[in-house]
Amino acid sequence: MSSPLTLAPGPATQRPRRVLLALGGTLILATYLFLVVLQPAEIAGGVGSTASLVSLFGFLGGGALLVAGILPTLSTSSLVVMPLGIALNIAIGQIAGSLGMQIYLDAIGTVLVAVLAGPAAGAATGALSNAVWGLFNPFALPFAAGAALIGLLAGLAAKYGAFRRVYLAPVAGLVIGAIGGIVAAPVAVFMFGAAGTVGTNAIIAAFRSMGDVLLVAATKQGLLSDSLDKIVVFVLVALIVYALPQRAVRQFPFARNHRVLGARSAAVAPGPTPSGPVTATPPRGDAAPDA
Amino acid sequence: MPRRRTLDPLTELLAAVLLVVLVLVVNRWEFSLGVLALVVLPAVLLSGKPRQIGVALAVVAGPLLISSLLLHGLFFPEGVSVLATLGPARVTWEGLTFATMMGLRMAVFTGVLLTAAMTLDIPQLLAAMTHRGWDRKLVFVIGSALGLIPHVALRAGQITRAQQSRGLVVGRSPLSRLRALLAVTTPLVIGLLTDASERTSMLEARGFSSSGARTSYLTDTDTTGQRATRWVMTGVVLVFSVVWLVVT
Description:
The structure holds two protein chains of two kinds. Chain A is mainly α. Chain A has helices spanning 18-38, 49-70, 76-98, 108-117, 119-133, 144-159, 168-192, 198-209, 214-243, 246-250, 253-257. Mean pLDDT of chain A is 79; it is low at 268-291. By secondary structure, chain B is mainly α. In chain B, a hairpin with a 2-residue loop joins strand 1 (82-86) and strand 2. In chain B, helix 6 crosses helix 7. The two termini of chain B are 44 Å apart. The model of chain B has no long low-confidence stretch (mean pLDDT 84). At the A-B interface, helix 2, helix 3, helix 5, helix 8 and helix 9 of A face helix 1, helix 3, helix 4, helix 6 and helix 7 of B.
């Protein structure tokens, strides 16, 4: 009989709420298709109200449903690393600004969580990151679904080996960045008329001066800057996780079971190299990140 | 002096969101301007920290408004009535109108949401979420992230200074900047992950993953009246939106 001071034993993790996940994914997809395929005609001249409402609630609601479906399934080790990812997204974005970088770097935390804890945790980190950021910068809110997609895809890429070799990470970054850019463009156009930083708007202006429609110009700009941004982010995250002590990586079942970092994250029995001095020396000479 | 809080944070947030919805639905510049002048401005002035909120609004929305004006004011190929031609750029009346409309919408969007968020008491919000029975994992992630942000920023600053004292110089080339970023983020992430793994075992030891009911140490600011108000507000805005979108 359990003592009244202990909590009743309950299921540690529940089954994923597939209905919520399916609804969230469908809502996001439907919103995107509505915006891009039907392309509300009003955007050509005026500022559409239906399009902006649909993009705000479709993407935000879809992200919320995804988070609601994912969260109950996550283990404590994944949940604890998610706030870290969210804080990193926001704080490194600020450092990047203070160092005078031209790219955003606001997905480092999302990709890091995705690599260590898996696609579900990555997606939830991306969506919640923009929700928390919305408290300081409301412009981040409507991009929550795009950030969730980045986390999901980064986790899948890690699962299938994109982080086992350092030269594979930028390739994955290029592809995922391009997808992210395509998804984010309609949000930027229909909510804010594609307003961004002076740098990104200069690119849009160049395409506009060649006569492109705003959505096309913003999509081309998204393809350019988001791919570049994600290439840098993926390389950075790869170099960071290679430098992590093995003990830190192995506490995550996802990284351990899927051998996300190749030989580095393999589940080896505590053998000749215990948790001694934490250095970044890889166990074998393969895929050593150059310093 | 911060104003005395009488409303539940969720009621305030919902009111702000519904106001944004109304602005998007009505989609008239007169209404947007009215909300800005008659709701946002008084709210900022009465918030007890008008300067802080004003600075935040300027920092967040200012650059976007300027770049939007430059983008659409100078490059709007759909524009017909050209006011001036500057090389490849054409200042058109349609472009300027579009920039103004979008700018007004962005200003209202930021004004309403940022004022609501900055007058919000974060612990109160988290307590309200617990009282309403929101997923405790969600409450933990959001609360913990909000608490971590200043910590991460502080630690990043310390690591940057430590690396600079060891000879880190940020040059102009992208490669040098990337190396500097790596020199700061790697120790930052390692330290944070170590903290996180300690937190995992501490949380597990305290029954975080159990499914029992939680106790909140803050009193519930919600009332039956507010709960009813929230439903009524949502219903009214929903009905109004449908009617407005069908009629216009």
